Amino acid sequence: MSRLPMLPRDQLGELEPLFARVEQQGGTVPNAWRMMAHVPDILRAFTDLAYVTLRVERQVPPVLKWLVAHVASRAAGCNYCMLHAVANADGLPQAAGEREKIDAVWEFETSPLFTEAERTALRVALGAALVPNAVTDADFEALKAHYTTEQIVEIVAVIALFGFLNRWNDTLQSELEEKPLAYAASHDLDKRGWSLGAHGKSEPA
Q1: Which residue from 40, 4, 37 is spatially nearest to 173, judged by alpha carbons?
Q2: Residue pair 58/64 in contact by the 8 Å Cβ criterion
Q3: For the whole model, what pTM was predicted?
Q4: CA–centroid distance for 69 within its chain
Q5: Rounded to 5 degrees, what are φ and ψ at 92?
Q6: pLDDT at position 205, please?
Q7: Is 197 left (phi over 0), alpha (psi -120 to 50) or beta?
Q8: For residue 38, what are the CA distances in angstroms to 33, 72, 120?
Q9: Residues 41-68: pLDDT tens digits?
Q10: What angle do CA 64, 69, 70 make, to 5 degrees?
Q11: What are the Carboxymuconolactone decarboxylase-like domain coordinates in residue numbering (predicted)?
Q12: Please, what's the largest Cα pairwise distance for the chain?
């Protein structure tokens, strides 16, 4: 269960435009935000950064950005962020022809569904999320061989954003919402290394 109270949405009228923007894009308003909303300025600043990092379409494909987030979160051990990232990838309009790839993300090193450029980005995501950072010079040179400087900034920004989220959600044990949990159940994620961990609802007294 969450370690801080989650503010009811009906008490957060000034933040409703933020929530509506997420839902219009097919996402779920995270319970993590309802804890962050105790200090609205932090939530606004965070959601602005998250929006421009993840939702503004630039040169890096949107599905790949969410898979980078998923791989980084799994490497960091954050089950909350792992599930949100893969469910968001699957929910994108661009995911229509990519669902087999999304399901195979943890075979990215060997699966023929992934290009070498995608493997390189996911390899960096994996290494960057470890402590200490495990990205090697060779990993980064490979990244530069496939991506422009601007694209590398996009990729590393996603990894860094989820570094914040991984620590936020695991420290506060953010409670997972029904929509991503339904995704986990329908895709048998428990058979592929995902578990609810500390992110379930509190048991009734």
Answers
A1: 4
A2: no
A3: 0.92
A4: 4
A5: -70, 145
A6: 33
A7: left
A8: 9, 27, 39
A9: 999 999 999 999 999 999 999 999 999 9
A10: 95
A11: 40-125
A12: 57
Q: Selecting from 3.40.50.1950, 3.40.50.300, 1.10.1740.10, 1.20.1290.10, what CATH number does the domain 60-192 have?
A: 1.20.1290.10
What is the tens place of the pLDDT at every residue in 91-136? Answer: 888 898 899 999 999 999 999 999 999 999 999 999 999 999 999 9
Quote the tokens at residue 147: 């991506």
- Identify the band that residue 70 occupies on the pLDDT scale cut at 50, 70 and 90: very high
Token couple for 52: 């421009």
Which long-range CB contacts under 8 A does 183-192 form with residues at least 24 apart?
A: 183/83, 183/86, 183/87, 183/90, 184/83, 184/87, 187/90, 187/103, 189/83, 189/86, 192/106
**SS3 per residue for the chain:** CCCCCCCCHHHCHHHHHHHHHHHHCCCCCCHHHHHHCCCHHHHHHHHHHHHHHHHCCCCCCHHHHHHHHHHHHHHHCCHHHHHHHHHHHHHCHHHHHCHHHHHCHHHCCCCCCCCHHHHHHHHHHHHHCCCCCCCCHHHHHHHHHHCCHHHHHHHHHHHHHHHHHHHHHHHHCCCCCHHHHHHHHHCCHHHHCCCCCCCCCCCCC
Locus of tokens 């390899």: 123
